[in-house]
């Protein structure tokens, strides 16, 4: 028998992949979204299915659902710096009020509730690679703080609802994830570089390109979500989910240029405020507790992502033959 599962932010990049995977497994999905950065086009193929329902709602408002709910994945929150800085006060409200509304629903329904937290809780880390025990190095008043501190407060709420009310929680810290359905205009490095390369525009590196990130393909991440949600009830996290392969931003630019056979040149722009210098997950805990680790190497994932953006741009040429 399928479970009744609510996914907030289910029309977004990661949420749409999670929705498709869980629908395919035969669960009954309620996909809740206010379509700020997500879109029904990401879940178009699911809209007509009997075991999929779309609920237009903003999680800053209380969530009323009549049916029983077994599991809740809380993904609703803009994730890219451009989007979360567009209305920073709203970003804090989404993280904090949203978490309270989702946790209250979980409490009423006796559901297990999963929080999509982030590597941003580590800020500009002084411990490398990042382990879950590290408390982070976050500027509380900077441009990224609405997201970083909002997500940190959401983790606090999850653990307090667990301790105070016995709500069953699961908290994961997601590291940079990429793949099809990324928003083309959200300014994230993977989507920017691919679009710039296939349009023949300059590739914009912020700073000297020496900063590092670790990129996880979305299918690997979704697998990790499901392993965590269905793990032993005692294991509540937080647990890092990401691909430990670490690349400088300059290396990523070179790989994308090579894979798209692009004539684009690299151009250097100012580094945004508080941009973390290095980021790489230590995933020992996920490997031990969830028996999970990513399986899709960067070039393989990039190939699928480049194909997606080529189609979006109306270019039907095969990536291999460009
Ligand atoms: P996304 O912006 O594509 O998806 C977020 C979804 O939430 C969108 O569909 C958006 O419309 C919806 N949303 C935003 N505010 C809402 C609100 N107030 N009420 C209802 N819906 C709302 O981003 P994503 O990359 O899919 O990220 C999903 C989650 O994973 C986010 O919580 C994000 O913080 C977290 N995360 C993502 C990454 C990453 O690399 N993509 C890394 C760390 C954490
Ligand atoms: N970045 C870049 N050029 C771009 C977009 C991003 O050099 O066009 C850099 C950005 O400054 C950061 C890294 O790439 O150092 C990852 O940025 P992204 O916004 O994708 O994620 P986050 O900073 O949240 O990890």
Describe the model:
- By secondary structure, this protein is an alpha/beta fold.
- It has a domain of 220 residues: 3-Layer(aba) Sandwich (Rossmann fold), CATH 3.40.50.
- The chain contains nine helices and 13 strands.
- Strands 3-2-1-4-5-6-11 form a seven-stranded parallel sheet, sandwiched between helices.
- α3 packs parallel to α4 and α7 crosses α9.
- The longest helix has 22 residues.
- It is globular.
- It is found in: Cytoplasm.
- Pfam families: Epimerase.
- It comes from Desulfuribacillus stibiiarsenatis.
- Its cofactor is NAD(+).
- Keywords: Cytoplasm, Decarboxylase, Lyase, NAD.
Quick summary:
The chain contains nine helices and 13 strands.
């Amino acid at each position: 028998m399928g479970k009744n599962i609510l996914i907030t932010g289910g029309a977004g990049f990661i949420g749409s992949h999670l929705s498709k995977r869980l629908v395919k497994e035969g669960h009954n999905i309620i996909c809740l979204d206010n379509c700020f950065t997500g879109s029904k086009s990401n879940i178009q193929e699911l809209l007509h299915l009997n075991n999929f329902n779309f609920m237009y709602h903003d999680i800053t408002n209380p969530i009323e659902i009549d049916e029983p709910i077994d599991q809740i994945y809380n993904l609703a929150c803009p994730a890219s710096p451009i989007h979360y800085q567009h209305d920073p006060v709203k970003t804090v409200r989404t993280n904090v009020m949203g978490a309270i509304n989702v946790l209250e629903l979980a409490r009423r329904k006796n559901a297990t509730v999963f929080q999509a937290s982030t590597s941003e809780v580590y800020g500009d880390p002084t411990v490398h690679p990042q382990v879950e025990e590290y408390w982070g190095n976050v500027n509380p008043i900077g441009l990224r703080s609405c997201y970083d501190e909002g997500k940190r407060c959401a983790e606090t709420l999850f653990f307090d609802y667990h301790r105070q009310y016995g709500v069953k929680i699961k908290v994961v810290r997601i590291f940079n994830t990429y793949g099809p359905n990324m928003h083309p205009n959200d300014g994230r490095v993977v989507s920017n570089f691919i679009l710039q390369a296939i349009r023949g525009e300059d590739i914009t590196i912020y700073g000297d390109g020496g900063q590092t990130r670790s990129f996880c393909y979305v299918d690997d991440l979704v697998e990790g979500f499901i392993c965590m949600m269905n793990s032993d009830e005692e294991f509540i996290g937080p647990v890092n989910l990401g691909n430990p392969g670490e690349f400088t931003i300059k290396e990523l630019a070179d790989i994308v240029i090579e894979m798209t056979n692009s004539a684009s040149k690299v151009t250097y722009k100012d580094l945004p405020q508080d941009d973390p210098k290095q980021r790489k997950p230590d995933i020992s805990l996920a490997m031990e507790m969830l028996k999970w680790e990513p399986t899709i190497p960067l070039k393989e994932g990039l190939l699928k992502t480049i194909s997606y953006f080529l189609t979006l741009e109306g270019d039907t040429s095969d990536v291999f033959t460009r």
